[in-house]
Amino acid sequence: MDEKHYKASDIAFTPTVKSIQSRKGSRSAYARMENEGGWETTITDELAGFISRQTSVFLATANSLGQPYIQHRGGPPGFLRVLDANTIGFADFKGNQQFISSGNLAENAKAHLFMIDYSARQRIKLWGTAIVVEGDRELIESLMPVNYKASSDQAVIFTVKTWDANCPQHIPQRFEGINVAEALKIRDQKIAELEAEIERLHSIHMRIS
Length: 209
Known about the structure:
By secondary structure, the chain is of the alpha+beta class. The protein folds into three domains: 1-38, no CATH class; 40-166, Pnp Oxidase, Chain A (Roll), CATH 2.30.110; 176-209. It has six helices and seven strands; from the N terminus they run αααββββαββαβα. The protein has helices spanning 15-24, 27-35, 45-53, 100-107, 137-143, 177-208, and strands spanning 56-62, 68-74, 81-84, 87-93, 110-117, 122-134, 152-166. A seven-stranded antiparallel beta sheet has the order 2-1-5-6-7-4-3.
């Protein structure tokens, strides 16, 4: 690869992809994007804030034969930890113990993180590499969310090569149950206050009638 002319988006926009973009009419727009700065290659403060709020992420890997696999990981806000400007880590909570992602990463370090925030109608795609770290209790415990009922004996460390944000088009707006419950609690409290005020005004009216 010609490093002099390499663009961060080339990790996704291969020559074949660019050829299809040209054929379908979108290459010129993406070429302008590349020439005007292109995709970010480090975790910005804004992205770090987005990551810290997420309760869900999809980790994509592929084995040495190219067979892809997508694994979902979830947890409380903050379970995804930004370790530095290029690194994200998370405790890999014990699940069904198929270890497909672990096996894939042992053969092929290339990985992808896909995050979607339905309430904000925002999605972020991160390309990079990942490793599975076993047996490092200090690291794993540092990545475990406080008071979260889960166990882990390994961590995933993801090194960001580049990332891109998609527009909200076609993303349905959905809200976390805990946020809906809090909004309903506030609504019910307001209704109770209004009902109490109506009762108070009614009592005053009855006394002066």
